[in-house]
Structure formats: C-alpha cells, structure tokens
Specification:
Belongs to the UbiX/PAD1 family. This protein is an alpha/beta fold. The protein is built from 7 helices and 6 strands; from the N terminus they run E-H-E-H-H-E-E-H-H-E-H-E-H.
C-alpha cells in the first residue's frame, strides 16, 4: 500500500520534542503501527538527546535511515512509517491539503507549547501543529513538566481554548501498576482512546477493577 492510499482516518502525525518521556513515545509508536495506522514521524534535535539519555537510543539523523530502522524494529508495512526532517517543508504534514487530521506531540516540551501557542511555525513540528489547528483537526499534546509556571499554564490554556487536547503525562494508579511499563501503558492507552484506536492495555473504569473490601 503506497503512502497516499492510506485513508485520512488511518493516518496520524506523531512528533517527539525535547521533554522527558521517551518511553511513552516509543510505546505509542509501536502501538500505532501495530494497529495498522500510517504514522508520519517528526523528531526534534532535543528529542534525540532525550532518547539517548533515557533509552540509550542513538537514532540516525537521516529520515530514510531512521524510517528503515524503526520499520524493521516494529515490523511496519512498506511505507507505513514516514519520517521527515525538521525543515522538510514539502512533506504532507506541512500543508492542510495533505496533512493527517490527527496529531500527537509526545512528549511535548514547554518550549514547543509556547511556539505553537504563538503560531511561530519555525520548524516542521510547529508547522504541522499549526496546520492541524487551522484545519480544525485533532491535536493532542502530552507535556511532561513539573511544576508548571504561570506562563506554561497560560500557553496551555490558550491552546485548550482553541480545541487542543492537553494530556499531561500523569499516569493513574487505579489499575494497580507493578512496573514502569504499566505506568507507560496507562498513558499510551489514554492517547489511543482519544485517537479512537482500539486498545486493551488498561482495563476501563468499572470493568476489571477489584471490588473494595466490604463492597
């Protein structure tokens, strides 16, 4: 299946920026590809530093080499994973006529939040987000910062008022996690739910929970 034959509802843009949270991004990428989604992947320079620090990952700088590496790792179908450079302005994600209607930035740095909120569009991640907002698509930001400053909150509120979904990387504990992977899966499951991608990573509230003593 060639890239343009994936219908819009089976496409998603996934961007990694320079916040902590590389395990979330890797798990989400794997789940999206396993679900048969075509993923348009964008990776910032700072995200590469985070990947190396948190996961020991040294990703190649050239998009074609990275696409080949990750396609083999996740057993993606031909052309299912599309990778673009940070200034690849002729890529589909740079235009409303070609970009997927859905985009996730995971993890999302507060610098990226600020740039999107100001409409800067200085790199492809910012431009792709700007496109999704202007086309009234679905943009999900997964910030990982603590504490939030008043400036952070103002920028997040500005984007939320534009219809952007703000989903901080704050995993819950009601599914009784035992490992770091369980915590990662909690957030990945919530993102997939919002993208309307089927998942069975975490039991839904009211289904599969243990009853409270005396209930």
């Amino acid at each position: 299946m060639s890239a343009h034959k994936y219908p819009r509802h089976r496409q998603v843009t996934l961007a990694l920026s320079g916040a902590s949270g590389a395990p979330y991004a890797l798990a989400l990428l794997g789940r999206l590809l396993a679900a048969g989604m075509q993923v348009h992947l964008l990776v910032s320079s700072a995200a590469r530093v985070v990947l190396a620090t948190e996961e020991g990952e040294q990703w190649p700088g050239k998009p074609d080499a990275l696409a080949a590496l990750l396609s083999e790792r996740y057993q993606a179908a031909p052309e299912q994973l599309q990778v673009y450079g940070k200034e690849e302005w002729f890529s589909p994600v740079a235009s409303g006529s070609g970009a997927p209607r859905r985009m996730v930035i995971c993890p999302c740095s507060m610098g990226t939040v600020a740039s999107i909120a100001s409409g800067a569009s200085d790199n492809l991640i910012e431009r792709a987000a700007d496109v999704v907002i202007k086309e009234k698509g679905q943009l999900i930001l997964v910030p990982r910062e603590s504490p939030f400053s008043a400036l952070h909150l103002e920028n997040l509120l500005k984007l939320a008022n534009l219809g952007v979904t703000i989903m901080p990387a704050s995993p819950g504990f009601y599914h009784q996690p035992r490992t770091i992977a369980d915590l990662v899966d909690f957030m990945v499951a919530r993102i997939l739910d919002h993208l309307d991608v089927d998942q069975e990573l975490v039991p839904r509230w009211g289904y599969g929970q243990k009853k409270q003593p005396g209930a």
